[in-house]
């Protein structure tokens, strides 16, 4: 065999980041991620070029999985974000925006990548150190004595997915359900056998299209789809019969009675010999007999059960459920303590039987489902979350959002803390490291082996990148402000809070305009970010918010305007000399927090973003096999 | 493979939605115009007159079309009515959203104001719903108009935030109507409770109301179809032991059977089910008249080859034999004998098969006076299982004594063998105590069958929802007019409020945003959407042009604000038919003021319409995957990732 075409040699790209095409693609990607960010984020419609199913989304997981790029650097970043999401389910867009911002700022600052990498690493340590401090200003403890902070955490996840199209009441309902489901899956007491380990239960989601969102509900136990249940009057009798516990048998092997498990090849049957189908059916009926003598009352199978066997079992008062699907097997095993049997030729071992406390038929929306109740109370609890929504697109998004929320809630079990949301953590942290970095610049520069001005330049880029994330929360028509005392994030309507000395750039998305502002420290060039609102104030940035335009609270709800008179604001991403360290808000007398983010997820996202940015900055050559 | 990004700066999506909705404008109101949809490539065409059928037949390649279709079909699947209203409102509100964008209102503001507007209106509509007990028989005429005075109460309750029932009682003007309305005000919670899961729970009985009158109120111009629905209710009530009156209606115990060829007057309602049989089989039925028979039910096909779902047949099984089979008996013969013996042993006279039945066996059975009927609907089998006590089985060989059901009557209903068509007889099979009712829909125009069926089911479900909600909304555009009025009232109050003090006390400080500066603008545009709905209704009724309609509506609004109650003439105007055609009986004309809509369906349709608009409005980018970057080079609105 000879090759039809000559093998092309690999293509090597030198310093990929200096290529305008690569930069353009990275800017585009950053714009996509930025515009998706937050509760007011924009949706994207993704479909293929032959007119397939349309995916409407703003979540990082769906978006990054669907959108592919030809650029290796982008692929690298996408893959690392998806990897982060698979572990933490949250902060995917955050990771992306921060990572692209960091790369962008380093490129614009003119710092050598090696220097920038060193500085970024050091600042990341400062950040993680800051976030891990006990008295960190952007951290709150999650109080398990009340569900309030849990509900807030869940709502922050759910409300940041505009594709779910929920009203505020619906958001609250779903968030409460998410917390309810989460609490049901936390076992009370120790897991039998291993006292020092806690085994969490699981939530199974059932989604129903076309119903009211407020009909969504959480049930302890499992809901099993039994479509043709009403055809068998005996089943309804069984479900109505007195209290359990009932013995349950669970099969994963197909009991359809076919010969498929004998594999390929032809079969020769001697005439007069019994029909193989009948032989198998006899085996199955023997199994049924055993189940009946062992007083099994619920007989379930992942796949198909031969109708004759079903008939036999039903006649003996056994509740038969077939075609459970693989997804339900694990939850059933966990809930009932049954062992899934994968063989029908041998008798069922007695230890394979599980138990349910009872079962009843439940009408959920348009479906009738069999409700299996968990056998005993302090068990690895399994619960079912029924989600209803008006159409399929929104329902899928809602389902994903609830699963995110559950994951985020679970993360709080390991680390019972949360971070302030609404961009406040980023602005606060930026102010903190900006202050700390400036005051300790000389020392830090010395230890890193860079010049002080280089260090300040790197520090500046890092802080701007953090603020860029907060700024990504405000979309067109709004502008992001930061107050000078607590360094929390405030969003206001554009053109109302900033009265004078403001240059409004039009939409800068396409051109990716970068405006250069005034240099403050010698040798420092400051870039005003023009990601979305493109607001760059000239001259003195400080101004006093006067009354109406500034909202009553900051992004996370911790700082109230009325309670703290004399606050001063400045637009985000403007520089002013010597910023004081931000004050920590005393959390004892504070109002209800509106937005909370997962601590664990965000901390990891921060690390992934900085490390990815450093990695990409470090890439000198890209070698592509073009065959 | 790269991805291509198209930025939708111009909000093409909203325009597409408006355009799509415009297709169905002529379906609004009682006088529907049919549409022909023709497929150029295949030459096929179909006649449609409902919104969801249009979408079903359109090749919706654009992403917005797909979204709209998905929403409509989901709504149709659950409610079986209101899809037209949904798409219409989606269309007009997407135009409103577009207009908002042109006025530089930011998207979060549009979204929050529009959902607030809808919330306000839904609340008011709920509290102004009419209990079904209050829907009086039309004969007793207008004196008790349920709508009288309601606008007063409406306007006060949301604006002042006062406890509505107190507000109503303290208001001197309304002392006359307080009794009717006090119930409506506290109806909110009850309505919520009603929406909990059991949407499909079974028969809805109408305690103390006459279904016939309700049916007329929600017939929406489909008088013939609705009279069939009333017939169904009568028959079900009779089976229920409620005598001759209409007391109960169970939409789940209802099937339709369409018979082309007969004229439309032949449509009728029969107990049990109706099936078409060949003349041969029908001759057997002649002998089976006026007796109770035994029945068995088969899930799947009645044939030797059939295996249950999930059974993977192995094809390569070969029989090896060492002697010649002289008897020539095949496996199939064995099976047939086996089945026939089982049937005879159990005294079975009727075999109802879900799938297909083997022709030979059917013949054999017939010679033994056993009737085999194939292709029975699962719903019907289910009903037979419940009423006769038969246990459905998959294989006929499985049958035993306890699987056999009893008490089935068979009779010939009508000879349907038209000329040039296969001889066929319509046979009626009824089980004892069954609630199942069949509606036979007939028409001489074959292509109208689908439309007739849709129309009938629309009526059936409207009645079903009426009885389930136990509440109705005033129809013929009155509810929409109310919404317009509410929004206008809010706009006015909003203006006064903002002039008085700063907006910080606005109740909906979403995300800490104090008030919404563009609330009034958005409300006005939203209200215009409803105005459009009413005027289209009037236009379709053939009474006036759209401009005249707007004038009339505006006049109505002025009158209403001046304290007058809704004019009955107004709604009569809406429904006045082209009387020259003699389409409307005098009775119908009188009933014109008595049109009602389903509450849950309508409010949910509005909600879904707005959701759809929001989804499209919030989308800024279309991403196409799997495109070769070279293909799109040079296109200005496209970027390659």
From TrEMBL, chain A:
The gene is MKKS. GO terms for molecular function: ATP binding; unfolded protein binding. Pfam families: Cpn60_TCP1. One of its GO terms (biological process) is protein folding. This is MKKS centrosomal shuttling protein. It comes from Oncorhynchus kisutch (Coho salmon). GO terms for cellular component: cytoplasm; kinociliary basal body; nucleus. InterPro entries: Cpn60/GroEL/TCP-1 (IPR002423), GroEL-like_apical_dom_sf (IPR027409), GROEL-like_equatorial_sf (IPR027413), MKKS (IPR028790), TCP-1-like_intermed_sf (IPR027410). Coiled coil: none annotated.
TrEMBL record, chain B:
Coiled coil: none annotated. Residues 494-517 are annotated as: Disordered. InterPro entries: BBS12, Cpn60/GroEL/TCP-1, GroEL-like_apical_dom_sf, GROEL-like_equatorial_sf. It comes from the Eukaryota. GO terms for biological process: chaperone-mediated protein complex assembly; convergent extension involved in gastrulation; photoreceptor cell maintenance. One of its GO terms (molecular function) is ATP binding. This is Bardet-Biedl syndrome 12. It comes from Oncorhynchus kisutch.
């Amino acid at each position: 065999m000879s090759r039809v075409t000559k093998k092309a040699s690999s293509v090597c790209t030198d310093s990929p980041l200096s290529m305008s095409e690569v930069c353009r693609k990275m800017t585009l990607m950053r714009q996509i991620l930025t515009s998706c960010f937050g509760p007011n984020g924009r949706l994207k419609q993704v479909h293929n070029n032959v007119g397939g199913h349309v995916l409407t989304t703003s979540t990082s997981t769906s978006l990054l999985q669907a959108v592919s790029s030809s650029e290796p650097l982008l692929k690298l970043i996408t893959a690392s974000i998806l990897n982060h999401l698979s572990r933490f389910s949250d902060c995917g867009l955050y990771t992306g925006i921060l990572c692209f911002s960091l790369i962008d700022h380093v490129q614009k600052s003119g710092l050598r990548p090696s220097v920038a990498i060193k500085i970024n690493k050091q600042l990341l340590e400062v950040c993680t150190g800051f976030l891990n401090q006990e008295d960190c200003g952007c951290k709150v403890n999650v109080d398990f004595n009340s569900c309030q902070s849990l509900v807030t955490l869940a709502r922050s996840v759910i409300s940041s997915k505009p594709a779910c199209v929920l009203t505020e009441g619906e958001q609250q309902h779903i968030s409460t359900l998410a917390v309810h489901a989460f609490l049901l899956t936390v076992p009370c007491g120790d897991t039998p056998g291993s006292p020092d380990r806690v085994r969490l239960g699981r939530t199974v989601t059932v989604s129903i299209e076309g119903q009211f969102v407020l009909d969504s509900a959480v049930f302890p136990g499992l809901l099993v789809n039994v479509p043709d249940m009403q055809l068998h009057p005996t089943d309804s009798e069984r479900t109505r019969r007195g209290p359990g516990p009932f013995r349950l048998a669970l099969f994963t092997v197909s009991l359809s009675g076919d010969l498929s498990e004998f594999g390929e090849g032809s079969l020769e049957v001697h005439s007069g010999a019994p029909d193989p189908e009948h032989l198998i059916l006899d085996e199955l009926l023997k199994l049924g007999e055993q189940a009946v003598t062992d007083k099994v009352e619920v007989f379930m199978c992942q796949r198909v059960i031969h109708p004759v066997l079903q008939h036999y079992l039903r006649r003996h008062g056994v509740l038969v459920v077939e075609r459970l699907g693989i997804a339900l097997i694990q939850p059933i095993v966990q809930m009932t303590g049954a062992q899934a049997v994968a063989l029908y030729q041998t008798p069922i071992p007695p230890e394979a039987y599980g138990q349910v406390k009872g079962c009843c038929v439940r009408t959920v929306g348009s479906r009738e489902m069999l409700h299996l109740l968990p056998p005993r109370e302090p068990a690895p609890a399994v619960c079912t979350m029924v989600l209803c929504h008006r159409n399929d697109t929104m329902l899928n998004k809602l389902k994903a959002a609830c699963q995110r929320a559950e994951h985020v809630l679970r993360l709080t079990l390991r680390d019972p803390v949360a971070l302030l949301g609404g961009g406040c953590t980023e602005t606060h942290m930026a102010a903190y490291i900006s202050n700390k970095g400036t005051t300790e610049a000389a020392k830090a520069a010395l230890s890193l082996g860079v010049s002080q001005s280089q260090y300040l330049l790197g520090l500046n880029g890092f802080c701007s990148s953090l603020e860029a994330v907060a700024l990504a929360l405000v979309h067109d028509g709004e502008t992001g402000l930061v107050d000078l005392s607590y360094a929390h994030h405030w969003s206001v309507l554009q053109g109302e809070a900033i009265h004078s000395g403001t240059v409004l750039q039009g939409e800068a998305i396409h051109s990716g305009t970068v405006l250069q502002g005034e240099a403050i420290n010698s040798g420092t060039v400051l870039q005003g970010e023009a990601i979305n609102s493109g607001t760059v104030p000239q001259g003195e940035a400080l101004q006093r918010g006067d009354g109406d335009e500034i909202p009553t609270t900051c992004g996370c709800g911790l700082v109230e305007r009325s309670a703290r008179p004399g606050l001063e604001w400045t637009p985000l991403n403007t520089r002013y000399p010597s910023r004081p360290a931000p004050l920590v808000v005393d959390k004892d007398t504070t109002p209800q927090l509106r937005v909370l983010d997962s601590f664990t997820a965000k901390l990891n996202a921060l690390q992934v973003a900085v490390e990815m940015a450093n990695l990409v900055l470090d890439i000198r050559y890209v070698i592509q096999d073009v065959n | 493979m790269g991805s291509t990004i198209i930025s939708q700066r111009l909000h093409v999506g909203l325009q597409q939605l408006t355009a799509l909705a415009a297709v169905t404008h002529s379906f609004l109101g009682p006088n529907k115009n049919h549409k022909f949809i023709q497929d150029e490539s295949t030459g096929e065409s179909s006649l449609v007159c409902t919104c969801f059928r249009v979408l079903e037949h359109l090749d919706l390649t654009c992403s917005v079309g797909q979204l709209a279709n998905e929403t409509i079909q989901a709504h149709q699947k659950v409610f079986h009515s209101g899809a037209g209203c949904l798409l219409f409102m989606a269309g007009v509100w997407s135009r409103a959203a577009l207009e908002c964008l042109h006025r530089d209102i930011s998207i979060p503001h549009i979204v929050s104001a529009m959902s607030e507007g809808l919330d306000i209106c839904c609340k008011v509509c709920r509290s102004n719903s009419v209990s079904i007990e209050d829907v009086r028989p039309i004969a007793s005429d207008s004196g008790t108009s349920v709508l009288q005075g309601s606008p007063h109460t409406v306007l006060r309750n949301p604006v002042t935030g006062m406890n509505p029932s107190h507000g109503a009682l303290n208001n001197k003007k309304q002392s006359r109507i307080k009794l009717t309305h006090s119930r409506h005000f506290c109806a909110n919670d009850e309505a919520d409770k009603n929406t909990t899961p059991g949407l499909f729970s079974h028969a809805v009985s109408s305690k103390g109301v006459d279904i016939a009158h309700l049916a007329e109120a929600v017939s929406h111009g489909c008088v013939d179809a609705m009279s069939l629905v009333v017939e169904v209710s009568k028959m079900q009530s009779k089976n229920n032991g409620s005598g001759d009156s209409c007391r109960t209606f169970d939409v789940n115990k209802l099937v339709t059977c369409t018979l082309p060829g007969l004229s439309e007057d032949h449509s009728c309602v029969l107990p049990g089910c109706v099936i078409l049989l060949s003349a041969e089989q029908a001759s057997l039925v002649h002998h089976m008249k006026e007796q109770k028979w035994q029945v068995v039910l088969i899930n799947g096909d009645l044939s030797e080859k059939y295996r249950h779902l999930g059974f993977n047949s192995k094809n390569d099984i070969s029989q090896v034999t060492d002697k010649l089979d002289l008897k020539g008996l095949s496996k199939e013969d064995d099976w047939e004998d086996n089945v026939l013996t089982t049937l005879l042993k159990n005294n079975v006279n009727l075999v109802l098969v879900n799938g297909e039945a083997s022709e030979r066996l059917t013949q054999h059975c017939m010679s033994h006076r056993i009737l085999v009927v194939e292709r029975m609907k699962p719903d019907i089998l289910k009903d037979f299982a419940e009423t006769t006590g038969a246990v459905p089985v998959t294989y006929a060989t499985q049958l035993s004594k306890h699987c056999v059901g009893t008490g089935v009557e068979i009779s010939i209903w009508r000879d349907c063998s038209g000329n040039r068509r296969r001889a066929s007889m319509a046979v009626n099979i009824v089980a004892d105590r069954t609630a199942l009712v069949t509606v036979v829909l007939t028409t001489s125009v074959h292509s109208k069958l689908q439309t007739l069926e849709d129309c009938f089911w629309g009526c059936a479900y409207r009645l079903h929802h009426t009885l389930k909600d136990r509440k109705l909304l005033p129809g013929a555009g009155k509810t929409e007019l109310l919404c317009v009025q509410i929004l206008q009232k809010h706009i006015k109050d909003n203006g006064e409020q903002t002039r008085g003090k700063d907006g910080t006390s606005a109740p909906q400080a979403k995300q800490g945003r104090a008030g919404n500066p563009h609330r009034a603008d958005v409300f006005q545009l939203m209200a215009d959407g409803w105005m459009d709905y009413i005027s289209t209704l009037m236009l379709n009724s053939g009474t006036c042009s759209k401009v005249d309609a707007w004038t009339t509506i505006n006049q109505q609004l002025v009158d209403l604000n001046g304290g007058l109650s809704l004019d009955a003439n107004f709604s009569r105007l809406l429904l006045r038919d082209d009387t020259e055609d003699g389409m409307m009986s005098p009775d119908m004309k009188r009933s014109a003021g008595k049109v009602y809509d389903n509450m849950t369906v309508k409010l949910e349709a509005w909600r879904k319409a707005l959701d759809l608009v929001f989804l499209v409005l919030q989308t800024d980018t279309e991403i196409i995957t799997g495109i070769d970057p070279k293909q799109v080079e040079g296109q200005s609105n496209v970027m390659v990732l």
